[in-house]
Amino acid sequence: MKRFFIPVVTFAFLGYLWFLFATSTVDLVNASSFPIILGILALIVGSLLFFYIMSRLKPVSELLLMHPVRLSSYGTFICIVMMCAMFI
C-alpha cells in the first residue's frame, strides 16, 4: 500500500504546484512588455523542470513505463491540474 500511496500523493502535490506556477507565471507575464515571448519561454522552462523532477522520483523511476503505479501517478498529476483549471 505504501508503494502505491507515496507516488500518487507526491504527484498530486506536484500537479498542484505546477498549476500554481502556471497561474502565477501568466499573471506575472501579463504585466511585462513582451508577454507572449516571455510567457512561452517561462512556461516551457518551468514545465521541463517539473517533468524532470517527476521523472527522477525514486519510487516511480524504478518502475516500467506501463506499471500501474506509474500510470496512476501520472494520471493523478493530470487530474489535479485539470480540476484546478476547472475551478478558476
Structural overview:
Helix content is 83%, strand content 0%. The N and C termini lie far apart (33 Å). The model has no long low-confidence stretch (mean pLDDT 87). It is elongated and about 50 Å long. The chain is built from 4 helices and no strands. It has helices at 2-30, 35-55, 58-61, 68-86. With 88 residues, it is mainly alpha-helical. The relative contact order is 0.19.
Name a few traits of the molecule.
mainly alpha, 88 residues, 4 helices, single chain
The separation of the N and C termini measures 33 Å
Series of secondary-structure elements, N-terminal to C-terminal: HHHH
**Structural class of the secondary structure composition?**
mainly alpha
Number of helices: 4
Strand fraction band?
under 5%
Helix content: over 70%
Query: How does the overall form come out from the CA principal axes?
Result: elongated
Low-confidence segments, given as residue ranges, are: none
Number of strands: 0
Largest sheet: none
Using the CA coordinates, give the radius of gyration. Answer: 15 Å
